[in-house]
Amino acid sequence: xxxxxxxxxxxxxxxxxxxxxxxxxxxxxxxxxxxxxxxxxxxxxxxxxxxxxxxxxxxxxxxxxxxxxxxxxxxxxxxxxxxxxxxxxxxxxxxxxxxxxxxxxxxxxxxxxxxxxxxxxxxxxxxxxxxxxxxxxxxxxxxxxxxxxxxxxxxxxxxxxxxxxxxxxxxxxxxxxxxxxxxxxxxxxxxxxxxxxxxxxxxxxxxxxxxxxxxxxxxxxxxxxxxxxxxxxxxxxxxxxxxxxxxxxxxxxxxxxxxxxxxxxxxxxxxxxxxxxxxxxxxxxxxxxxxxxxxxxxxxxxxxxxxxxxxxxxxxxxxxxxxxxxxxxxxxxxxxxxxxxxxxxxxxxxxxxxxxxxxxxxxxxxxxxxxxxxxxxxxxxxxxxxxxxxxxxxxxxxxxxxxxxxxxxxxxxxxxxxxxxxxxxxxxxxxxxxxxxxxxxxxxxxxxxxxxxxxxxxxxxxxxxxxxxxxxxxxxxxxxxxxxxxxxxxxxxxxxxxxxxxxxxxxxxxxxxxxxxxxxxxxxxxxxxxxxxxxxxxxxxxxxxxxxxxxxxxxxxxxxxxxxxxxxxxxx
Length: 572
Known about the structure:
This protein is of the alpha/beta class. It folds into 3 domains: 7-104, no CATH class; 110-183, SH3 type barrels (Roll); 219-320 and 354-382 and 393-570, Glycosidases (TIM Barrel). The chain has 17 helices and 30 strands. Strands 17, 18, 19, 20, 24, 26, 27, 28, 29 and 30 form a 10-stranded mixed beta sheet that branches. Strands 2, 3, 6, 7, 8 and 9 form a 6-stranded antiparallel beta sheet that branches. The protein has a 5-stranded antiparallel beta sheet with strand order 15-14-13-10-16. A hairpin with a 2-residue loop joins β6 and β7 (79-86). α10 (350-367) packs parallel to α11 (400-416). It starts with 6 loop residues before the first helix and ends with a helix. Mean pLDDT is 94; it is low at 1-23.
């Protein structure tokens, strides 16, 4: 429930306001249904004592139905009060606080933004009309429905600071006064932590993110396993057509989850309607595999597996080809900037947000994916030397860490509406304390919003001596344990932390890292997983093996046959 009540109402309750009535009551037996109305979540009702004094009896949720005696009106200083009956008790309500129709119980004319949020143009399709920053005043044009706590689910609003932009905003991100909108969540506890985080590489100030608690859903008809032991499958036809072999492997182990590509950069899985609308090149380059996806996901569900669809977001050359205005561009030429052999849509651009979320929702509704996993939820890395020559087209003046958190917030809100969870991949580096990353991933900001956060601490991505460990790639337990300890530190400063489910290296050490590095067989994959669990990261793992080679997975089968959750959590 929103906990802000107009100050004069709060004082009325605290002081047990006493009023003397001027009685004017006729035809007391006439009753009509009414609904409590208010410009906040509650309405005050008053009690009449034996001496004819009126005192505040408490706050009652707006929208509550009462029996009103419309001809029994008492006036106090010319303000009319009507007798009402609620749960067998008699009260008086201000006449103006009673509505004849339930749709009229919301009386606020303006609301203010507490948590920066997306304005939707269309709540059915998740298209974006604009953005409302913290503290913005929004004129209320309408609303959809009341929640059980008297708050509004979604408001229709006019943004008074954005040239009258109209759209829809979720009520959970708004408050009733500008003073409350200016507040930060438990500033005395959290602000000192995030203010101390340095912006050494230009990713943005941590304090600029939002840390109000986020209610994480649990869908009754879509339960998430306590620990997801996950195999990754790419979108190759040879892989998906061999799904029965992967099922056979998984049933010999504790594997309970499959992560399947929906769209990777220049590798779209199937011809999705969202691709046709937003990125025709992705649509043309995708295979005619809708029936195959339907069969694969259906078979996995038949066998009791939890199924996750993976989508790469802000690394998408085909989307840029179709939408060059949405790309990171070169300032000198205005042409899309090529980085790491790919073109990148800007993380600030709302059209690319829409595309990936529309694709995700379609996949959930069409195939029944339990969860959507977003990868490349970031700006390009290794951009320090070229920052001055590129244009990110930052319409709203956001930092990178703000834009990434706000995309995750938007994605979660919209995908939750179709009954699926959201996981977000982050670089292992984002677990390090003390600074925000150059590419916009700040662990606490993402974890606070997402359902699941999936770090990618591949041992051969750590430099020699990292965390004091020589050749981390040859010491998978030690490096993952040390990394996991740092993750726990980031989770501890997150009001509503996500489940941590980690990508583990399932490929051999890359030759450019160490020509004599170890092979990642069952023993070494198990060491990775045990390092995570020993550090208290018990949400499970996902194998990163780009080829999804089933022979390699069989070589690692021993690692997948262990029930780490039972051993480390239930066995305590």
